[in-house]
Amino acid sequence: MELFLASDQPINPSHGWKGERYLTVGDIDETEQRVRAHFTLPHVRFLGAHTGCSCGFEYGVKELTTEEERAEDEAGRLSVAALHDFLETQLRQGRAVQLLSCWQGEESRTPREVLEVSPDYFGGKSFDLPRSAFLKIRGAVEQRDAADEAREG
Fold first, then answer.
1. Domain containing 55: what range?
2. Rg (CA), the chain
3. Which of 3, 63, 136, 137 is within CB 3.0–4.6 Å of 54 for a Cys-Cys bond?
4. Pseudo-torsion of CA 96, 143, 109, 59, nearest 10°?
């Protein structure tokens, strides 16, 4: 899994958001340049979780039976929290931000869904990064769940 970020202003690479290893911001390599076609913003970076790839942006989605699985789940929780904080910080600094999640090698495929979300989307009791999505990040978007939609429908 890969997660890419585009911004209207440059964002420096980082081997650890706020000195922690749970979120890294990196350059995109030559094969990943294809993701640029999906973005309307010019400055593109790769976002990695504690795993180095973007697969680690998940927690609370699997049954945890071993201590190793519990530690991995907690590291995922910390990676998602760092991503949430990172996105909030970018918005507070006046940056426009977009994200694209996809499988490695599928950078040129059209995402299956387009979502408009706030940084609060990245959190909760559990989180699993969408597998093929373009996410428009906004500051004050109310998050709606299926229960809200069912009550209105």
1. 2-152
2. 15
3. 3
4. 110
SS3 91: helix
Distance between CA atoms of residues 32 and 41, nearest Å = 16
pLDDT(149) > 80: no
- Indicate whether this model's pTM tops 0.85: yes
Token pair recorded at residue 52: 């180095």
Find tokens 């996410």 and name the residue.
Answer: 135
Segments of the chain assigned E as strands: 2-7, 24-26, 43-48, 58-59, 97-102, 113-117, 127-128, 133-137
Query: How many domains does the chain contain in total?
Result: 1
What confidence tens digit (pLDDT) does each residue in 62-103 have?
999 999 999 999 999 999 999 999 999 999 999 999 999 999
What is the token pair recorded at 70? 């519990």
Collapsed DSSP state (helix, strand, coil) of residue 129: coil
